[in-house]
């Protein structure tokens, strides 16, 4: 079984042609790792903070208060340490992280319209929402909150431990936690409870989501990455994107500056070598180098253009 043909992939048609898989890859491994490196400490910190505020606040100390206070500090250290470690572990996806950062902070007219219409859509599904990119407007708000508050949470949290400034730092720390609570709570609700959106939670575990669901909820993103018409129209721009290629020997994914530079390099006496296993990477079989540009363009036009290219027709890992 390959990633392009997951367990619930659609069967072949009567004509013998394989239809599009029922699932598509939405999040790379590096994206998922960073998400959980942030999400897990955030949830644990909010939980322990709520317990300390509601049940263990002064002037009525309760048993185990120190244990919960210590746990809160430990989770704070996790919030400081885990995201950088996740970025380091998923360094190959750094371009994806930059693209996500750009997507999360750039707003379009449709994003504002989505925010206005979403409550009405929740009451009346017949009200159509504007097409969204990789993240909808609510996810963008949460993304902006996390990327802005993360360094402030860390800074004020560390100051709380220092004598002389702990009270002021505590007030700032508490204020940010209160401001972020609606977005964190809303994000958890949409991901785990709301029947329309919780389907996508699998994407943060496996990377794969239902194709029809993604097309409905993230239409613009789906159209740009998985519909042939969108791929053909954006081919010139896609040639400028980073090229991700599977090594045929060790199955590791290597990243190059762009597809255009990879095509140009294939016409020079400068072999591609996998830095992981030192084996040569061939875009086409030996003696067929003249077709390198053709096979790359075919890959970029296909519904697998968002996946790493598997040379020699091999299956992507």
Kindly describe this structure.
By secondary structure, the chain is mainly alpha-helical. The chain has 2 domains: 25-211, Transmembrane di-heme cytochromes, Chain C (Fumarate Reductase Cytochrome B subunit); 227-313, no CATH class. The protein is built from 12 helices and 6 strands. The chain has helices at 29-54, 65-89, 94-105, 109-123, 137-160, 166-192, 211-217, 219-226, 228-233, 235-238, 259-266, 292-301, and strands at 23-25, 208-210, 243-246, 253-256, 272-273, 280-281. α3 (94-105) packs across α5. The protein is globular and about 75 Å long.
Layout of helices and strands, plus pairs?
Blueprint: E1 23-25, H1 29-54, H2 65-89, H3 94-105, H4 109-123, H5 137-160, H6 166-192, E2 208-210, H7 211-217, H8 219-226, H9 228-233, H10 235-238, E3 243-246, E4 253-256, H11 259-266, E5 272-273, E6 280-281, H12 292-301
Helix pairs in contact: 1-2, 3-5, 5-6, 7-8
């Amino acid at each position: 079984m390959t990633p392009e043909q997951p367990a619930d992939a659609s069967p072949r048609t009567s004509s013998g042609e394989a239809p599009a898989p029922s699932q598509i890859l939405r999040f790379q491994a590096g994206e998922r790792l960073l998400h959980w490196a942030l999400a897990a400490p955030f949830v644990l910190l909010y939980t322990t903070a709520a317990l300390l505020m509601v049940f263990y606040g002064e002037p009525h100390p309760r048993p185990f208060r120190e244990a919960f206070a210590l746990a809160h500090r430990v989770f704070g250290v996790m919030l400081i340490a885990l995201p950088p470690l996740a970025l380091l572990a998923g360094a190959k996806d750094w371009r994806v992280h930059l693209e996500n950062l750009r997507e999360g902070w750039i707003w379009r007219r449709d994003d504002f319209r989505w925010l206005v219409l979403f409550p009405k859509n929740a009451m009346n599904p017949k009200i159509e929402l504007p097409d969204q990119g990789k993240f909808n407007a609510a996810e963008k708000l949460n993304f902006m909150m996390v990327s802005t508050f993360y360094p402030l949470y860390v800074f004020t949290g560390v100051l709380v431990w220092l004598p002389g400034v702990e009270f002021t730092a505590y007030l700032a720390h508490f204020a940010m936690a209160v401001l972020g609570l609606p977005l964190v709570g809303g994000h958890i609700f949409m991901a785990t409870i709301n029947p329309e959106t919780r389907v996508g939670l699998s994407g943060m575990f496996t990377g794969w989501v239902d194709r029809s669901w993604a097309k409905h909820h993230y239409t613009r993103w789906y159209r740009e990455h998985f519909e042939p018409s969108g791929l053909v129209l954006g081919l010139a721009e896609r040639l400028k994107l980073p090229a991700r290629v599977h090594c045929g020997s060790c199955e590791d994914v290597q990243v190059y500056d762009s597809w255009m530079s990879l095509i140009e390099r294939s016409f020079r006496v400068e072999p591609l070598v996998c830095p992981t296993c030192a084996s040569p990477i061939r875009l086409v079989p030996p003696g067929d180098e003249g077709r390198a540009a053709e096979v790359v363009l075919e890959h970029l036009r296909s519904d697998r253009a968002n996946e790493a290219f598997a040379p020699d027709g091999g299956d992507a890992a």
